[in-house]
Amino acid sequence: MSVRLNLNDRHQDILRATIQHYIATAEPVGSKTLVEEYNFTVSSATIRNALGRLEKAGLLYQPHTSSGRVPSDRGYRTYVEQLITPDEKIGKKVEKYLNEQLNWDTWSFEALLQRATQILANLSGYIALITLPQTRANRLRHLQLVQVSPKQLMLIIVTDSYQTQSILIDTPLSVAENLEENLEGIEEELQILSNFLNSKLRGLSLAELALLNWSELDQEFTQYTNFLKKILGELTRNLQSSLTTPIIVHGVSEMLRQPEFSQLQQVQMLIHLLEEEQDQLLPLVFEISNPEILVQRVTLKIGSENPLESMRPCTLISATYNQKDVPIGSVGIIGPTRMLYENTIPLVESTADYLSDALS
């Protein structure tokens, strides 16, 4: 979670102008530029002082001591959360364009997603991603807990296509102590827990699992609340890692013209991720193991907020598309952190909304 900063009006205006100028030019921004190109009624010295304060707050930094300032990842985060309003006209434009360009009567769904991804890449100028929907095989048919050692349990899961997977789980101390107190009834205790899990989880998809809330449990299971949350986390991560859902990608060549990608190594790392490591990229684009993510309409990972090194120069904006209110896929855009956020956010959101409405 980001910390919301209380900036006064002047600091907000100067930070907004600095970031907008840097987004447009990719050049460090100094006080002279802000005085000449923006309608500030204060002196250059006052703006210099404000830029220094914003730098101390971690929102800007100087790449060289003699240069102007550029936004930090934290600066972009503040910009997105406090200083801009996404352009609704852009959202309506992309919905209209998708309606005109996609033929739902004769095209396959994959062909529709391919074309939608191309449109999104062309409109944004960045890399567009759309995941194909989940398959039925991600629904749970049966679960069983088995003790393999005093400190470890195995969770065995069977999907509706009769695929079997097993997950080793470290037993939390509180649960281990409770089982040790009932040595003779360990198998019975685990069977009771297994029956409870089956009653709650059987028939659910991976996306529906992520929406479960264990905060309200029957009294006899309250002592297992944290353990059940841990099982749910392990379960969704394991199933998600086994997904073979391909990601449709367009717009790489356009994005690589951005100055941020002038270094060959950065380009190679990003292309390798998009082409060879989609299994690592998928959990970032379609992050359904975290219920908090699903509550938010659009999610952003800016620069260092991305866990993968190859994504650190980038921002990823994503939104899920749904079928009957259940997330089954995701729409995303990858661009430099120096991104037109007020345009890109509604592009992603409106494309996801369009696909959700079409699937309904």
Automatic annotation (TrEMBL):
Coiled coil residues, start to end = none
**Is-annotated flag, keyword Repressor?**
yes
Any GO BP: negative regulation of DNA-templated transcription
Among Pfam families, the record links this protein to: HrcA
Domain of life of the organism encoding this protein: Bacteria
Q: Which UniProt keywords apply?
A: Repressor, Stress response, Transcription, Transcription regulation
The GO terms this record gives for MF are: DNA binding
Entry-linked Gene3D superfamilies: 3.30.450.40, Heat-inducible transcription repressor hrca homolog, domain 3, Winged helix-like DNA-binding domain superfamily/Winged helix DNA-binding domain
- Domain Heat-inducible transcription repressor HrcA C-terminal as annotated: residue spans: 110-345
Xref: PANTHER family: HEAT-INDUCIBLE TRANSCRIPTION REPRESSOR HRCA (PTHR34824)
Described purpose of this protein according to its UniProt entry: Negative regulator of class I heat shock genes (grpE-dnaK-dnaJ and groELS operons). Prevents heat-shock induction of these operons.
Q: Into which family does the record put it?
A: Belongs to the HrcA family.
Protein name per Swiss-Prot or TrEMBL: Heat-inducible transcription repressor HrcA
